[in-house]
Each structure stands twice: as C-alpha cells, then as structure tokens.
C-alpha cells in the first residue's frame, strides 16, 4: 500500500482534526497518536511525534486537493532525496481550463542533483512565475532536458483519441522519457505519480522502453523532478501569456469563477467556435458557460 509521510507543524493539529471531521472522517485515538481518522478509501494518522501518515486508494486526491493547499505550507518533508543519476519528469496545466498541457523532463547525475539543490530548485508550486523563468533558464543552460507542449488545439485532438487524461499524461511522460533516455543513455527515472503505476508502465511498454522507474506521490521532493516541474511550469506560463495576447484578454489559471468569467468574455467577443484553441474541451467547466 502506498504511504505518504510528512512532519506537521504542531500549530496545524487542531485545524487538521477539525477539517477531517468536516470531511466525514471517523476519529479515534490509538496509542502514541494525537488522533487517527478513517473513511472509505483513506486513513490519516497524526502521531505524537508530529509525523503524519496517509494511506489508501484515495490518498492522492486528498493530498492534492486538501493537504497541499491547506496544510503542506507548514509541513517539512523527511529527508528522502534521490541524488543518484536519473531522469525526472513532471507536468503542468492538467488542472487548468485554459492553456496547454506541458510535460517536461530533466536528466542529472549525482553532482548535477547537488547543483540543482544549490541553484535553489524546488517544487514549482512554491516558486513565483517571475522566479520560475530565471530558474528555468539556468536549468536549460546546465542540463539535458526535453519539453512536450500540447497546445489546447493539439490537446483536444489527442483527447479524442485517448478519451482519458491519465492515458494522455502517460503517453506524454513516456515520450519525454524515451527522448531523454536515448539522448543520455540513462535508464533510471523518477516521476511524480499521477495515476495507478500500471498506466505509465504500459505506456513505456508500448514504446518498448525498459527503465528502472520510480513513481512517487509528491515526487517534486526529488530535486531532478523539481527541476522538471520548473521547466514544465515555465513553459505553461509562457504559453498562457501567448494565448492571452492572442485572445486579447488575460486568461486566468485554474478553473475558478474568474476563469468562467474570462471564458464567457472570450465567447462574447470571438464566438464559441474559438474555444478549442484556448481551453480543454472535456472539462466540466465548459458545461457551466
């Protein structure tokens, strides 16, 4: 069973407990814990050592949609850095109604991984858009990399074939891994896990690509994956700027009320037929316009 472990700031204990109750968790207090919460598909245990352990098939969604935005800013991850030679891959844009899907990969050996740490490379979600471009330029100057950018138009065309976002993401990851493995000769890789492990493994098999692949929840803790996340985010931001200029209005990120307002304005000014050039057409957001 996949397990997610982090140390939590003691000041977050009460908020976490209250939020778990609000989300329908049943709480208990096993020995050596502050509390433990369970509901179908997931368990969350906070030990008196301040170690938080999350397990279950619904773990990734819980981390992405609750822990990351609400709690993780106060978490410190336990040391588990992969400083051996490998390729790191991550994506940007999968949750954004407007804009492309970007998958990026970076190759580094042990010295390169240490260099990335010295550059201040970390998960792109914690870096401002302005700082990201500067970091991305430094990474591109020093390391082998590969970036796949699926513009909204291309994304929508491919989605008609794949009919599943995770399958399309797996193809994108496999494409980046294939290119970098051929370029560098490296056969070891770490990616940020986004689906059942078999989804990416099967995509690699279809390309007849044999790699020692590690899939990690919050893989951006790995410095090479973090570098890939920065390249992906930088490419996403640059493409969003280009699309905003083409649209004649600022296209917001995400899938918020502001995004819906911008989409309605775009339809009003250019017509609904223009949407496939700017948005991901399978998003439920489209039904609300």
Percent of residues in helices: 40-55%
Please give the radius of gyration in angstroms: 20 Å
Main sheet overview: 6 strands, antiparallel
Low-confidence stretches: 74-80
Percent of sequence in beta strands? 15-25%
Number of helices: 9
Please tell me the overall pLDDT. Answer: 90
Structure description:
There is one protein chain. The chain is an alpha+beta fold and 289 residues long. The protein has helices at residues 13-22, 59-71, 110-118, 129-142, 152-162, 165-184, 197-206, 223-247, 257-270; strands at residues 3-8, 26-28, 33-39, 42-47, 51-55, 75-76, 86-92, 101-108, 144-150, 188-192, 212-216. The protein is globular. It starts with a strand and ends in a 19-residue tail after the last helix.
Protein traits:
single chain, 289 residues, alpha+beta, six-stranded antiparallel beta sheet, five-stranded mixed beta sheet, 44% helix, 21% strand
Brief account:
With 289 residues, the protein is of the alpha+beta class. The protein has nine helices and eleven strands.
Write the layout of secondary structure elements.
Layout: E1 3-8, H1 13-22, E2 26-28, E3 33-39, E4 42-47, E5 51-55, H2 59-71, E6 75-76, E7 86-92, E8 101-108, H3 110-118, H4 129-142, E9 144-150, H5 152-162, H6 165-184, E10 188-192, H7 197-206, E11 212-216, H8 223-247, H9 257-270
Parallel strand pairs: 7-10, 10-11
Antiparallel strand pairs: 1-5, 1-6, 2-3, 3-4, 4-5, 7-8, 8-9
């Amino acid at each position: 069973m996949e397990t997610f472990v982090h140390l939590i700031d003691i000041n977050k204990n009460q908020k976490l407990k209250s939020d778990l109750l609000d989300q329908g968790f049943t709480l208990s207090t096993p020995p050596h814990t502050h509390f433990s919460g369970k509901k179908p598909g997931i368990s969350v245990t906070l030990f008196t050592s301040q170690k938080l352990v999350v397990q279950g098939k619904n773990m990734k969604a819980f981390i992405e949609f609750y822990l990351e935005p609400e709690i993780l800013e106060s978490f410190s991850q336990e040391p588990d850095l992969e400083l051996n030679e490998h390729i790191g891959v991550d994506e940007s844009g999968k949750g954004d109604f407007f804009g492309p899907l970007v998958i990026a990969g970076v190759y580094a050996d042990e010295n390169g991984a240490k260099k990335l740490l010295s550059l201040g490379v970390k998960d792109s979600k914690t870096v401002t858009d302005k700082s990201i471009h500067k970091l991305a330029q430094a990474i591109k100057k020093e390391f082998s990399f590969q970036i796949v950018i699926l513009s909204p138009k291309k994304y929508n065309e491919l989605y008609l074939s794949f009919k599943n976002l995770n399958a399309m993401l797996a193809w994108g990851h496999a494409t980046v891994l294939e290119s970098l493995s051929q370029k560098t000769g490296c056969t070891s890789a770490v990616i940020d896990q986004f689906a059942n492990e078999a989804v990416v493994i099967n995509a690699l098999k279809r390309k007849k690509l044999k790699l020692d692949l590690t899939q990690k929840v919050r893989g951006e803790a790995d410095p090479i994956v973090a570098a890939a996340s920065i390249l992906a985010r930088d490419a996403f931001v640059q493409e969003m700027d280009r699309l905003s200029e083409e649209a004649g209005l600022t296209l917001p990120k995400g899938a918020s009320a502001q995004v819906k307002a911008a989409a309605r304005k775009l339809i009003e000014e250019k017509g609904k037929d223009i949407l496939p050039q700017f948005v991901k057409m399978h998003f439920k957001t489209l039904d609300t316009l």
